[in-house]
């Protein structure tokens, strides 16, 4: 059976440095975390998945459709969205406006509809506003709809990023360290939200995360990278006790090798 999302033998080089070496990855449903020491190649893999980097070799498919060579906006239109390790909100726009921006991939208005501000435009505008408010409600930010993004607490900004990502109506979300900078309570609340999104919306989620407590509690499966290679894959418990993973995190293996891009 073909996986919903699948990468085969993905390889990426930067000059003489091999950042990814024939990495295989597959996801059918639920939440899969990609972990590894700094420089393991995790974000490089995400950048290939979402069209920011070209791969030197390999293939990536989503629902059987090849992704390599597509632009990021084309990949978004297919139903894949992504957040970044560093928050990338529109800082001077409100929470509601940020979510509305995320809907651009699904807006079907023609140029003359927008120019005239009549009929279809007014109907669409009202519907988009209601949907944006509903997404803010889902992530617990409805009361902050009119707050400027830069004034929101850090944890709420992370939640707003997820609401904006949901606005593109994805079936697959790629989240790059979504709990970075959060308190333990904020991280626990976000884990509950991610599980709700999987259960309620049928979303699949690929997660890069350094917080091992989050990884072990929220993941259905875990893939481990080290120096651009996949060294382990399995359930959280299986990965947690894998000798190769323990060595990679303790830094006792291949210690003199140069690190791949992150």
Detailed description of the structure:
The chain has 262 residues and is α/β, with parallel strands linked by helices. It has a domain at 92-154. It is 37% helix and 23% strand. It contains 10 helices and 10 strands. The protein has helices spanning 42-49, 72-77, 95-101, 111-116, 120-138, 154-166, 184-201, 212-218, 236-240, 243-250; strands spanning 5-14, 17-27, 31-35, 57-62, 65-66, 80-83, 172-176, 204-208, 221-226, 229-234. Strands 6-7-8-3-9-10 form a 6-stranded mixed β-sheet, sandwiched between helices. Helix 3 (95-101) crosses helix 5, helix 3 packs parallel to helix 6 (154-166) and helix 5 crosses helix 6 (154-166). The relative contact order is 0.19. Mean pLDDT is 86; it is low at 109-117 and 253-261.
């Amino acid at each position: 059976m073909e996986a919903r999302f699948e990468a085969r033998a993905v390889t990426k080089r930067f000059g003489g440095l091999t950042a990814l070496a024939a990495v295989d990855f597959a996801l059918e449903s639920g939440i899969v975390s990609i972990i590894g020491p700094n420089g393991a190649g995790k974000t490089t893999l995400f950048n290939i998945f979402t069209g920011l980097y070209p791969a030197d070799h390999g293939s990536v498919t989503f629902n059987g459709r090849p992704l390599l060579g597509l632009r990021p906006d084309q990949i978004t239109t297919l139903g894949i969205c992504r957040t970044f390790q560093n928050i990338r909100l529109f800082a001077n726009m409100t929470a509601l406006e940020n979510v509305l921006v995320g809907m651009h991939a699904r807006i079907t208005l023609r140029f003359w509809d927008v120019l005239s501000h009549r009929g279809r435009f007014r109907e669409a505008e009202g519907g988009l506003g209601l949907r944006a408010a509903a997404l803010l409600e889902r992530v617990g930010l409805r009361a902050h709809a009119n707050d400027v993004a830069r004034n929101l607490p850090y944890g709420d900004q992370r939640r707003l990023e997820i609401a904006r990502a949901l606005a593109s109506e994805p079936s697959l979300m790629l989240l790059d360290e979504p709990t970075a900078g959060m308190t333990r309570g904020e991280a626990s609340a976000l884990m509950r939200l991610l599980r709700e999104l999987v259960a309620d919306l049928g979303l699949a989620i690929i997660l890069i995360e350094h917080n091992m407590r989050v990884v072990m509690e929220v993941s259905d499966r875990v893939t481990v990278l080290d120096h651009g290679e996949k060294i382990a894959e399995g359930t959280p418990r299986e990965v947690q006790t894998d000798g190769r993973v323990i060595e990679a995190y303790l830094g006792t293996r291949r210690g003199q090798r140069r690190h791949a891009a992150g």
